[in-house]
Structures are given as structure tokens and as C-alpha cells.
Amino acid sequence: MKQVSYKLILKIFLLVLLTLFIARPYMEKGLSHVPTVSTSDYAIEIVDDAGYKIHLDKPATRIISLYSAHTENLFALDLADEVIGVGTAESFPRAALEKKAYDYNADPEKVISAQPDLVIIRPFIERHNPAFVDALRRSGLTVVSLYPENAQEFESYIMRLGQMTGREKKAEQMLSKFNGEMANLLSQTEAIDKRVGVYFESSDRDYTTVTDDSMAARAIEIAGGRNVATGLEAVEKGSTIAPFGLEHIVEIGDQIDVFVTQRGVMGAGGNWHSISIRPGFDTIKAIQEERVLEINQKIVSSPTFRQTLGIKEMMRYFYPDRFNDYSMYDKEVALTRRDFANLSVLYAQKPIFVPTSSYFNSEYRGHKFGYFEDISEADDDYYFVETAVLSGYIEGEKVDQEEYFYPDELLTKEDLAKYIFLLKDFSHLNQGVVINDLDQYESARIISVLVENGVFELDESGNFNGDELVTGAEAIKILEQL
Questions:
Q1: Are 391 and 420 in contact, with CB atoms under 8 Å apart?
Q2: Distance in Å from the first CA to the final CA of the chain
Q3: What contacts 24+ positions apart, CB below 8 Å, involve 130-133?
């Protein structure tokens, strides 16, 4: 009897061990998790883009995101505190750069030891490093693979992020705002009859473009462009990259009014000169007319809410007379520093600067993108301010190792003189012009040179009056005079 009881107890013990092992949240494709605590229904259920059924008892609160677009969208859903780790290619928002970075090409134990309750990847990671992903799943971590294959799947992708994190309402709000912005942009371009012909270069390596259902193709359409490379099949399933070829590009060169080249991990892109010296490219209309737009893939091909930013940039470049207009500043109203930043970028028709992850791996003596304490990513003028500063059109200030832009301070005549001096090469004419109040200004030499060159005029008493405020009309007059 004792022997039977011992065998029975041993069998029960082994059965419990086996059940616990199986019940760990290891996901087999197409099968649900086995409940680990109770037999009640899970609170959250989704199917990811790799075909796994994902079950969560409660919203995730310790998240590691191994794809930059996931990270950006999680922050947009107000999940900054819940994200405990990110990938190695982060560039936006700034707060994401302060999170601990994890590399899917490194030891999976680093991710496992962090004990996240959710690891979000994309199918690309599983295809290129299946052992890493398998190790995470076998350790008991919940791994979710998401990536919208085309523009139509963006909403579903965002909603699943919201479901898993308890941010469904926020996801709905963000999508409603996003769709409203897209509709507004479309309303500005849909009546354009004579549309510019656009070729979109996805990568400079193999002369590839994009498929019709891609986010980039949708961006071209909403921006009022006419994609000259349509009806193409993707290089592989789940991709929106399509082969086109050098010969085909040259063949339709007379249809290409604007050549858009994508800069980012997909390809290095290129400026007008580097593209113009490619074999046969000198026959392309856009190259001949120097209409080449370099655009960061993060704002045109990446599945984030910043797609609207990329569309606005295309609109500015496709139709500068309509969408690069700075006449709203041509008023007898004092300019703020943010106003001048906008005006200077629009006047120069400068594309906005969008950094890649490699940008943040370098040290900068001057301003570093995104590090102003008084203007955040949520500010409507954020990219114009950053672009103006990085282009040398205006400067910020460092105070105790922190950077400030003072966006709403009014622009003085002396301020404008400093910025105008940065825009163009001026020489000292040695005309001996006497400026009676010159000794009052830190920028005395600059003021003297600009007055000699006729950029600024003195008043009847021979004073510069550098403390006077500058109106938009005055600034535009000077810029156009240059």
C-alpha cells in the first residue's frame, strides 16, 4: 500500500511539473497560450502578424520594443513609463534615446533578464534571427510580431498596440486625429489637375521603388503627385519594395518632374549631384531641372503618425508656389524667434531635417537635434526651429549645459543682423560709415559690415537702433533684397 502511494505521489508530482512546463507562455504558431494561473478567459486576445494567438491576462506594463516605429507609436500612446527597453536604431522621440537599448543580434539573455511582460518585434527580426526570437519565447516571454504590410493595415496595427497596453481609447483618438489630418491634406491637393510626375527611389542600391499599396505611394498621391512607377510586384511577400531598374528609370526620364530619394536604413539616398552622375541620369527631366527631394524614410515609409509630416514636405517641394508660402509673415507685426525660424526655412525652401539613429552616435559641439529644453516634439514648429538652427539661420543658447531656444521672444534688429550675416557671404567694404550707437552692440562688426553693404539703413541721426523690434514685413524685405 505504501509502495502504491509512493508511485502515485511520484506520478502526480511529475504530472504537475510537466503541466507547469507546458503552461509557460511559449507560443506555438496558430495555438493559444495555455493558462498559467486560472482557467478563466484572457482579458486581451489578438493575433499577431506572424500568425500567433497572443493572450494577456492584463495590459502590459513592462515593454521592450525592438523596432523604432513600435517605440515611436508606444510613446505616442502615452506609454513612456511602460517602455523599459528599446532597440538600437532609435531616433524619435528624444525620451526613447534615454531608455536601455537591446540588440536582437546579441545575447537574448539580456532581454530575458530584464523580465518584460511584452516584447514587440517585427517579422523582419524573426526572419533574420529566428534563434534569438525562439530563445525569448522558450524562456516564457510573450513575444508579439507586428508590422503593417501596407497603408491599409496601419489602423489595425495601432489598435493592436492599444489593446495589448490598455490604451485602446488613446489609440482611437490618435487614429481619429491622424485620419482627420490626412483628409485635410488631401482636400488641399485633390483639385490639382496638372500633377507633377514623381519617381520614388526606395533604395539607391538596386534602383528599387515602392508598390502601389505602400505608405510612400499613398504619400505621393495625397501630396498631389503622380507616381510614374505603378503596377509593380514586391520583391517578396510582406514587403512594399519593388524592383524597377536603371534602364527603366532612364526610359521614362521625361515623365519624372521630381525625383524623390529616400534616406535611411533602406538606402543612403543622395543629393542632386551624386544622383546626376549616375549612368544615363543626365537625361532625366528632374535631374536636368535640379528637382531632387531627399526625404527621411522615418516620415514617409515608416508606420508612424509622422507620415503626415512627410506628406507636408512633399507638398512643399512638389508645389512650392502653393505650399511653401511665407506671405503670412508679411505683416507689420513683430516677429518672434519661432516666426523667424519658420520664415527662414520657407524662404530658403529648405527641407526639414529629420535625424537617423546614427546621428545621435556622434558628438556635437553646437546644437544637437531635439535637445532644446523649451520646445518639444509636440510643438507645431518643432522641425522648422530645429532645421533653422542646424542650418545656421538662427541660434539657441546654452545655459548650465542645457540648451534653450526662447521661441516666443521677439526678434530685435541686432538679432536679425546676426542671422542675416549667417545667410550670405559679406565683405567689409571699408567705406568708413559712421554708426553713432555702434558701441552699444555685441555684434558691432557684423552691423558695420551689413550697413556698408546696404542691407540695413541708419536713421536720420546715424543710429542703427539695434534694440528695435523687427516686423515680418521688414524681415521679408531684407531677405528678398539678398
A1: no
A2: 105
A3: 132/104, 132/105, 132/108, 133/104
Measured between alpha carbons, how far is 247 from 432 in angstroms, rounded to an integer? 61
Distance of CA 53 to CAs 48, 135, 144, Å? 7, 18, 9
**Residue 230 contacts residue 262 (beta carbons within 8 Å):** no
Instruction: Give DSSP secondary structure letters for 370-415.
Output: T-BTT--TTSTTHHHHHHHHHTTSS--EEETTEEE--TTSBPBHHH
- In whole angstroms, how far apart are CA 137 and each of 77, 162, 430? 26, 22, 75
Dist. CA 139–CA 133, nearest whole Å:
10
Contact 159, 46 (CB under 8 A): no
Residues 469 and 382 in one domain: yes
Structural domain boundaries enclosing 68: 22-171
Helices in 129-231 by DSSP H: which ranges? 130-138, 154-165, 168-189, 215-222
Residue 377 located in a structural domain: yes
Q: Can you give the C-alpha Rg of the chain in angstroms?
A: 28
- Residue whose C-alpha cell reads 538662427 in the numeric block: 394
C-alpha 73/C-alpha 154 separation (Å) is: 11
Residue 205's CATH number? 3.40.50.1980
DSSP designation for 195: P
Helices (H), 215-306: 215-222, 246-251, 272-276, 285-288
- In a domain, residue 432? The reply is yes
Dihedral, 110, 112, 117, 119 alpha carbons, nearest 10 = 60
Q: Which residues pair with 295 in a beta bridge?
A: 262
The series of mean pLDDT values per 10 residues for the chain, 482 residues long, is 49 43 39 35 88 95 98 98 97 95 97 98 94 97 95 97 97 98 98 96 88 96 98 88 93 97 74 90 96 95 97 98 95 97 95 91 85 95 97 91 95 94 82 90 94 93 96 94 84
Query: Would you state the cell numbers that stand for residue 244, as one nine-digit string?
Result: 524597377
Question: Would you say residue 341 lies in a domain?
Answer: yes
Calculate helix-pair angle for 472-481, 337-347, nearest 10 degrees. 30
Residue type (1 letter), 212? D
Grid coordinates of 62: 513592462
Q: Which of 449, 466, 366, 362 is nearest to 414 (CA)?
A: 466
- Please state, in angstroms and rounded to a whole number, the distance separating the CA atoms of residues 410 and 339: 9
Residue 263's pLDDT is 84
Q: Which residues contact 107 (CB under 8 A, 6 or more apart)?
A: none
Neighbours of 252 (CB within 10 A): 15
